[in-house]
Amino acid sequence: MTSYTIRPTVFVHVPKTAGSAVTSYLKQHCRSADEVAPNFFGDYSIYFRQGPLSLIAGHFTFSRIRLLFPHSSFITFLRDPIARTISQFRSWKDPAKMTREWMAAMGHEEKKLFEWIYSASLEEFVRSDHPAIRKAVSNPMTKFLSSDGTADVSSALTNLRKRFATFGIQEEFDESIRLLQSACPWLGPYSLSPTAENHSRIAVDAITPAIRRRIASLNAADIVLYDEARALFRDRVDATPALVRSAA
């Protein structure tokens, strides 16, 4: 493998944005498993219980993780907000997604919530006022990427432009991987199996116009962020000669 970067690579994994596949891909090309941070379940102290880390990936916000690793190479992925919300529901509705580690980190009330989700419809899910559901489906991309953890589109876009080494778009996955490879020369070819990409097996009811409107109303900031990010992504792809050559 090529020489590894000195700066840690930090992957801000917004849920349901192809992040499991990206995390697996990054881990696959790390020099040593000892340099990969353990799975993150809300406890930031895990990052100080072992030696130097080269890869840190998890469902943490940029506003929090940059305080711990300010000199890192940050990357992230985004996804169409309506598709992302539906995928969030499908993932949470699938008991097979409940890993032993995740279950151990859950409290009693959280376990009760997931029991309800298993029997809920998509419409019931997106209309729920439960704080955990509202947090998961209301502008999560903007909150994950903004400077203060709020739905501040302006700072989220500034961070994408100036503080992230690169970012990808789930709907343009192949080009996103090539852009990631350009930003991280230590990465090799992308060759994950479908099982490593964490596709959901749960089907949902028909996506009615009312459900789309509800999801859109909950994600006004994310829709703006996504549209702006896609335009920036296209500009970066067009400005990267290696990507132009590989697509020719």
Overall mean pLDDT stands at 88
Number of helices: 13
Number of DSSP strand runs = 4
Overall geometry:
globular
Question: What string, H for helix and E for strand, traces the elements in order?
Answer: EHEHEHHHHHHHEHHHH
Uncertain runs are: 1-5, 244-248
Could you estimate the helical fraction of the residues in percent? 40-55%
Please compute the radius of gyration using only Cα atoms: 18 Å
Strand content: 5-15%
Main sheet overview: 4 strands, parallel
Strand order of the largest sheet: 2-1-3-4
The termini sit apart by: 27 Å
Structural class: alpha/beta
List keywords for this structure.
248 residues; 50% helix; disordered N terminus; disordered C terminus
Question: What secondary-structure arrangement, pairings included, does this model have?
Answer:
Elements: E1 9-12, H1 19-28, E2 55-58, H2 62-68, E3 73-78, H3 81-93, H4 100-105, H5 108-119, H6 122-127, H7 131-137, H8 140-145, H9 153-162, E4 164-169, H10 173-183, H11 209-218, H12 220-238, H13 241-247
Parallel strand pairs: 1-2, 1-3, 3-4
Helix pairs in contact: 9-12
Model description:
- Helix content is 50%, strand content 8%.
- Mean pLDDT is 88; it is low at 1-5 and 244-248.
- The protein has a four-stranded parallel beta sheet, sandwiched between helices.
- It contains 13 helices and four strands.
- α9 packs parallel to α12 (220-238).
- The protein is globular.
- It is an alpha/beta fold and 248 residues long.
Compact description:
The protein is of the alpha/beta class and 248 residues long.
